[in-house]
């Protein structure tokens, strides 16, 4: 591992420590969460991507429905097939899809925001005002990303499953109850925990990657766009790698 | 005001400060002591190291070698939390501006008060009061990028003074201000100094007007402190010292 990578990991840990410090201070009543900034961040992370995410989730649900219908014509094990598909959606598709959307929208926005603040010396302005720039920028955004990633993952699960189930009911006459029973038979509490934890870890990684890339912006305008594109690439790689680690460690 | 002025006499102590950037020595063996309530001018041509020295005093950068003590705290060993507490007793007006463009003027002014625990209403009243004192009324809801250069400087000054700092650092004092504003600001600074025993350290590259409010002057040239003393002492030294004369000619 080269020096720069180690520096980036150190910076990410520093950012994480500062964020945890902020949350602890908020819980102890020593700091206040800037509600205006937090609500704006919630809107940016969640509501701004909700329509497109819903459309993509419907498309994924339709594709899965059509594919399942085709396979069911060849192998007649509907219970096993529907359960496996449901499991794949809940444990893999939905967290990955949400992770990619959050990286593309909020990750890039955070990197650009921090980078611009460094470039325009606004970060210095915060420091001389006695405000930790990490508390001001990453703190509320990370919290919004964690909350909204969880909510969006649940939403995506519901939309993909509902669309696939609706297609299979309309086209293949498979009742929703069979889908439900198959899922119930295959899903255990560990799978549900993974489906909840994964989007949170993805959100954390995206925020830290964005913060590191934003903080590393030099005093050149093109550095901000480079930070944005690097954030997207790094975040996708980190999400895929983490997903792979989950598969090896927990089988999903 | 977080630290008692009476407890501190030497507001700033710099001991053998060196700063290297890109292999070049930009500050060389700077030692300086500034007393409480003093007005100290850093005079020197462009690139002499004035801004860098002020940034070191503010703790925005760390020196390559040497010791910096501000308000009785050793900056070289201060924790990030201590630095943030310390900065609440120090105000700084930066060259080129450091206001947050995403916030209105009044929101920028409130920034340093956020950690004070005051209610929003009280913070707004304090901000409006200082706006009136500096004749900035009517600009509350404007964004920094909508202001002229001179008005931005005045807003920055208001932000730096809002917590009634023990120490005010001003990079390029009175730069970009019209004569009427210069008069107002000089008067305001004198009042603040008298009321709160505020120490003022400012940089300037002009040997004219700004120096009239300085008790002592330090002449910087190519990162070296060539002279410290009164204005009269400077005139006498200039006649004797050829290097100092060249430095002052560069500052005209």
Principal-axis shape of chain B equals globular
Tell me the Rg of chain B in angstroms. Answer: 18 Å
- Kindly report the average pLDDT value of chain B: 86
Range of strand content of chain A: under 5%
Poorly predicted runs of 5 or more residues of chain A: none
- The ordered H/E elements of chain A are HHHHHHHHH
The first-to-last residue Cα distance of chain A is 28 Å
Number of helices of chain A: 9
Fraction of residues in helix of chain B: 25-40%
Going by helix content, strand content and strand pairing, the class of chain A is mainly alpha
Low-confidence stretches of chain B: 1-7
Question: Number of domains in the coordinates of chain A?
Answer: 1
Radius of gyration of chain A: 21 Å
CATH superfamily of the largest domain in chain B: P-loop containing nucleotide triphosphate hydrolases
Overall geometry of chain A: elongated
Quick one: how many beta strands of chain B?
A: 10
- CATH T-level fold name of the largest domain in chain B: Rossmann fold
What is the gist of this entry?
The complex is a heterodimer of chains A (252) and B (252). Chain A has 252 residues and is an all-alpha fold.
Summarize the SSE layout with pairings.
The complex is a heterodimer of chains A (252) and B (252).
Chain A: H1 3-27, H2 35-47, H3 50-74, H4 78-119, H5 122-128, H6 133-172, H7 176-186, H8 189-215, H9 221-250
Helix pairs in contact in A: 1-6, 1-8, 2-6, 3-4, 3-6, 4-6, 4-7, 4-8, 4-9, 6-8, 8-9
Chain B: E1 10-21, E2 24-35, E3 39-43, H1 50-58, E4 65-70, E5 73-74, H2 80-87, E6 90-93, H3 105-110, H4 120-133, H5 149-161, E7 167-170, H6 179-196, E8 199-204, E9 216-221, E10 224-229, H7 231-240, H8 242-251
Parallel strand pairs in B: 3-8, 3-9, 6-7, 7-8
Antiparallel strand pairs in B: 1-2, 1-4, 4-5, 9-10
Helix pairs in contact in B: 7-8
């Amino acid at each position: 591992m080269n020096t720069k990578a180690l520096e980036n990991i150190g910076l990410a840990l520093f950012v994480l420590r500062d964020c945890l410090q902020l949350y602890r201070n908020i819980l102890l009543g020593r700091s206040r969460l800037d509600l205006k900034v937090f609500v704006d961040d919630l809107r940016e992370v969640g509501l701004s991507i909700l329509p497109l995410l819903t459309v993509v989730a419907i498309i994924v649900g339709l594709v899965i429905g059509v594919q399942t219908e085709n396979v069911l014509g060849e192998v007649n094990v509907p219970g096993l097939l529907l359960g496996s598909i449901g499991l794949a959606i809940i444990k893999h598709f939905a967290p990955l899809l949400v992770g990619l959307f959050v990286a593309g929208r909020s990750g890039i926005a955070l990197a650009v925001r921090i980078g611009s603040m460094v470039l325009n010396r606004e970060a210095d302005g915060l420091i001389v005002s006695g405000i930790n720039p990490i508390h001001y920028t990453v703190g509320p955004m990370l919290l919004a990303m964690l909350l909204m990633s969880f909510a969006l993952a649940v939403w995506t699960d519901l939309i993909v499953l509902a669309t696939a189930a609706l297609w299979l009911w309309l086209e293949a006459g498979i009742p929703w109850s069979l889908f439900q029973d198959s899922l119930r038979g295959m899903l255990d509490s560990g799978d549900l925990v993974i489906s909840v934890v994964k989007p949170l870890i993805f959100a954390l990684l995206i925020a830290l990657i964005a913060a590191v890339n934003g903080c590393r912006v030099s005093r050149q305008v093109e550095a901000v766009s480079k930070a944005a594109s690097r954030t997207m690439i790094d975040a996708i790689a980190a999400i895929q790698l983490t997903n792979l680690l989950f598969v090896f460690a927990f089988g999903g | 005001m977080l630290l008692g002025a009476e407890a501190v006499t030497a507001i700033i102590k710099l001991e053998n400060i060196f700063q290297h950037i890109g292999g070049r020595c930009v500050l060389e063996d700077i030692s300086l002591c500034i007393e409480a309530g003093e007005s100290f001018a850093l005079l020197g041509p462009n690139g002499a190291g004035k801004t860098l020295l002020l940034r070191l005093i503010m703790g925005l950068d760390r020196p390559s070698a040497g010791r910096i003590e501000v308000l009785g705290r050793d900056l070289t060993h201060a924790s990030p939390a201590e630095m943030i507490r310390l900065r609440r007793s120090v105000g700084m007006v930066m060259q080129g501006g450091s206001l947050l463009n995403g916030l209105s003027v009044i929101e920028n002014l409130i920034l340093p008060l956020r950690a004070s625990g005051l209610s929003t209403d009280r913070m707004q009243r304090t901000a409006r009061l200082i706006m009136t004192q500096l004749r900035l009324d009517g600009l509350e809801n404007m964004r920094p990028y909508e202001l002229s250069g001179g008005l931005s400087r005045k807003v920055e000054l208001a932000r730096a003074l809002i917590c009634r700092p023990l120490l005010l650092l001003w990079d390029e004092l009175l730069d970009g201000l019209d004569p009427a504003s210069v008069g107002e600001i000089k008067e305001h600074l004198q009042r603040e100094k008298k009321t709160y025993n505020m120490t003022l350290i400012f940089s300037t590259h002009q040997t004219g007007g700004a120096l009239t409010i300085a008790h002592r002057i330090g002449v910087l040239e190519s990162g070296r402190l060539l002279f410290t003393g009164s204005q009269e002492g400077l005139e006498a030294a200039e006649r004797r010292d050829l290097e100092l004369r060249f430095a002052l000619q560069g500052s005209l």
